[in-house]
Amino acid sequence: MPHNTTPLTLRTPSRCRRPIAIAACLAGLIAPLGSAHAQSGSATVDEQYRQALYQRETGAPYTAIESLESLLAGDPTLNRARMELAVAYYRTLNFARAKAESQRVLDDPQTPENVKLSVLSFLKQLELEEKAAFEKPHKFEPNVSLGLLYDSNVNAGPDNALIGPGLLLTPSSLKTSDWGVVGQAGLTHTWLSPAPVRIGQATARFGWVSQAGLYYKGYNQEHDYDLGVVTLATGPTLIVGSAWRGNINLQVDHLTFGGDTLGVYTSLSPSASVRVGLNGEITGDVQWMHRDFKRSIDTGRDSNYRSVGLAYGHLFNRGQLAVQAGGRWFDESADADRFSNDGYEYFVGARLRAWNGGDLFARAAWRRARYDGVEPLFNAARRETEHRVELGASHTFQTGWLEKWQLSATITNVHNEANLSLYGYDRDTVQITLGRGF
Predict the structure, then answer these.
(1) 14-134 maps to CATH 1.25.40
(2) Residue 347 and residue 310: Cα distance in Å, rounded?
(3) Is the pLDDT of residue 13 over 70?
(4) pLDDT bucket at 199, cuts 50 / 70 / 90
(5) pLDDT digits (tens, 9 = 90+) for 129-154
(6) Which distant-in-sequence residues (6+ apart) come within 8 Å of 433 by Cβ?
(7) How far apart are the first and last CA of the chain?
(8) 244 vs 170: which has the higher pLDDT
(9) Which of 23-27, 95-99, 137-141, 144-148 shows the highest mean pLDDT?
(10) Which of 7, 283, 303, 433: disulfide with 334, CB 3.0–4.6 Å?
């Protein structure tokens, strides 16, 4: 779990209502208690004090703890330094030591009453944050959604029956439209270690995330294209402060198509995200997948798929607008060369908080695939370029009987260009979904 950045509410001036300013404000109230020591000693005490604050605010909280503890060892009555030490422990998620140091200031008979009120408020907030962060290491999050779908090209068929000299498609192979229903249900279990660990100057928490999910898409008439997916996934995660996070996901998907078992996909996907500045993040991932097809008509399609992706996301206007762009390289080695392919894709997307509880989003992707083997009917290898554009909106209800439910609508256009006319098609889908996480 990342470092909790929820502002602490103290009975102090408004300039003190951010975690990074807590000790500075308290130190201003406590400073008279230590002023005599600073004068009787030398500038060294103040220099050590300022150096410790600099270390803490520039990403070295553990070094700051060492500096402040050294300073307090020489003069345990410097309560302003003790409160800065409490905040440093808070930054490293060591709530027990943060509370202990704050309590020592509170118990000091020389501490003024107005300062005690601020320290008591600080202690209360520490207790609340510790409870939220560590009281329940296990978290279960179910989710469910149900929707309607219109598909202009269920079978991804071409518009023209004539696909080559002397080659004519049957009507059932041409573009076919239909509507249907989509449903999804899932359960996510997250475990976070009850004790944080130190990695350099950062505080990290180790965890484990597991998921189970069901997905079904059923058409009104074209039942041969009904799709069902059962998913099980699990893997470790590591969250290092607000700087970066990483995880490894092992996943198994069982797919049915038209009521029959299509295959089993088994994948391993490590990924990592690194914060860039205040509002940016770079995410990289690698995926290995084995696709095991079960139907006799899919002989030769068993494959090993590999991909590498890199994306950059950025928040604008205090998080009201999120933009992400990235790319991916992929390679699939199948038993039959005509199913083996490699290529790359690019995408860009954005999400805008347009009203209270409402978002507008858009995504565009461009994908290029090159197949190895020759197609029997054409005596040529496939080359495909897919253009995909998705537009949508969502609204989360704030009150009423639909409170916390989200209504979303998406429109997607896919234009697939191919050197072989059999594989070129256009497809539009419209989907309206109502769902909720619990």
Answers:
(1) yes
(2) 11
(3) no
(4) confident
(5) 888 888 888 999 999 999 999 999 99
(6) 145, 146, 147, 182, 407, 408, 409, 410
(7) 19
(8) 244
(9) 144-148
(10) 303
What is the 3 state secondary structure string of the chain? CCCCCCCCCCCCCHHHCCHHHHHHHHHHHHHHHHHHHHHHCCHHHHHHHHHHHHHHHCCCHHHHHHHHHHHHHHCCCCHHHHHHHHHHHHHCCCHHHHHHHHHHHHHCCCCCHHHHHHHHHHHHHHHHHHHHHHCCCEEEEEEEEEEEEEECCCCCCCCCCEEECCEECCHHHCCCCEEEEEEEEEEEEEEECCCCEEECCEEEEEEEEEEEEEEEEEECCCHHHCEEEEEEEEEEEEEECCCEEEEEEEEEEEEEECCEEEEEEEEEEEEEEEEECCCEEEEEEEEEEEEEECCHHHCCCCEEEEEEEEEEEEEECCCCEEEEEEEEEEEEEECCHHHCEEEEEEEEEEEEEEECCEEEEEEEEEEEEEEEEEECCCCEEEEEEEEEEEEEEEEECCCCCCCCCEEEEEEEEEEEEECCHHHCEEEEEEEEEEEEEC
| Residue that the structure tokens 């083996």 belong to | 340
Q: Is the dihedral of CA 128, 130, 131, 133 positive or negative?
A: positive
**What architecture does CATH give domain 138-437?**
Beta Barrel (2.40)
Distances (CA, A) of 90 to 50, 99, 106: 19, 9, 17
Q: Which residue has the higher pLDDT, 59 or 307?
A: 307
Of 78-82, 141-145, 219-223, 247-251, which gets the smallest average pLDDT? 78-82
Q: Give the model's confidence band at 22: pLDDT under 50 very low, under 70 low, under 90 confident, else very high.
A: low
Provide the CB-side half-sphere exposure for 426 (13 A, CA).
2
Residue 167: the pLDDT is: 66
Domain ranges of the chain: 14-134, 138-437
* pLDDT tens digit sequence for 378-394: 889 999 999 999 999 99
Cα 30 from Cα 83, distance rounded (Å): 9
Position 45 scores a pLDDT of: 82
Phi, psi of 399 (to 5 degrees): -140, 175
Q: Look at residue 138 in the predicted model and tell me its pLDDT.
A: 92
Confidence at 278, pLDDT banded by 50, 70, 90: confident
Which residue matches tokens 């969250």? Answer: 239
In this model, does residue 293 exceed pLDDT 70?
A: yes
Whether the Cβ atoms of residue 272 and residue 245 lie closer than 8 Å to each other = yes
The C-alpha atoms of residue 352 and residue 347 are separated, in whole angstroms, by 17
